[in-house]
Amino acid sequence: MANYSKGAAYERELMEILGLKGFAVARIAGSGKAKVEEPDLIAGNGKLILAIECKYSGTKYKTVCMEQANDLVKFSKGFGAKAILAFRFAHCPWKFMELQEVVIKNVSVKKTDELMEIKKLIE
Fold first, then answer.
1. Catalytic site residue 108?
2. Which residue among 31, 57, 76, 108 is the active-site one?
3. Which tens digits make up the pLDDT trace of 9-30?
């Protein structure tokens, strides 16, 4: 499966999970190809709005470049949403990291890092 197709499939997976938890979710197709960076998903439940950038890795780590992370923070602040990096490692459930401020380096995450689980994300 091509990288774009694989990424889109995982975005749809997270859409379904959030939908089952009471969120309205929109996928911004082709978000990585836009001239202005947009998140992969926007989700809200009337109390909480999330701007989510989804990342999949079949290895033990994943890195999000500083520019992409900061674009997510900027978009989220303008939208009134929480900026969320969502990581899906092979054979593991989704893990989440909230970005509250701009970052000064790439964001690297290991499969074994203790990140937020979905339950904590949607509290």
1. no
2. 31
3. 899 999 999 999 999 999 987 6
